[in-house]
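Milestone M4 deliverable, item 7.
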Amino acid sequence: MTHLVKTVQKIAMAILAEAGSCARRLVKSLAYVPFLLASAAATADDPPVTTQIVDFANKLNGVHPGFRAFHAKGVVVEGSFKASPEAAQLSHAKLFNGRTIPVTVRFSDGSGMPNVADGSPAANPHGMAIKYHLPAGADTDMVTNSFKFFPAGTGEDFRDLLAAIIVSPPDAPKPTKLEQFFAGHPNAPKAFGTAATPDSYADEEYHGINAFIFVSKTGQRQAVRYLLVPEKLVHLTPEEAAKQSPDFLSDELIKRIERKPVVFHLKAQLAELGDQTKDGSQPWPDDRKVVELGVLTLNKLVPNSLAAERKLLFMPTSLTDGIELSDDPLPVVRTGAYGVSFARRSQPGPASSGSDNMNGHTSNAPTQASTVSP
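Output delivered:
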């Protein structure tokens, strides 16, 4: 058994143990477009995969009213984006016209438990979701995380991964369902192995994982995958991460932005002829050209981050002219699951929970938890 498989199995065991203890403390358990409404209203006898993903997420991590079932803990900040001249050559999107575009950004831990310790392996991968506020009141979203590629290529595979973790406790017969899943999806444990704990949300690199199509003014089409590159990349060892305070990532980001802006470079990895675009679990070769799209500057704290993030919904399919979906099925699946999640967590009382963005900040987290994230 490889080191990566063993590492992921340890994370899975921690998920099950922590979820069991949290369940005793938790209460049991809007969409914007017809597709999302259909997902949210699906019958229990025949739910679509989007609803199944949210249901399995709640089984795995417990139901936390008002919070996402993945990336439940986070912090919201604001700033601006200014595109490079190269971006306008690739896409005629208003996002890349060179004007300063206001943005709302949510950083997050990967766990579905809002009290996860930032230094826990369960907090990986970390997320960065961006809402670009375009002219005339329109928005376009990017939903990224610190996985370099996704553990599963389809919604069905991701659902099956969650199901396998749930039924693979330490005493499960060998080979466990999780081991069987890894055997059939060898890139899944490799994907988990690409994530680590940063010393700051601002010192992490975030990946778009799914392919999108840029359309230029002349109609030329180019498949891309997004990268958000920090001014410096700093990861902690597991031992260093374990010594940090429970909320050190959110606390550090707040203090940093009070001192100076946080800067990221938005880049695009360009596919070449023959590169597939339909499977986010298959990375493109490292030698593919990477182009600078612009600079993201984050310089404003949100007074009540928790209230702000509960109203936010980031959708990978919220695009603008000049940026189109590819044949990758996951953006549509993710949007559907986020719609189910948003509907649940927007309800008053115990029923509000879900996986929106699979990306809420709570201070002074009392316990450490574990999970995996899409």
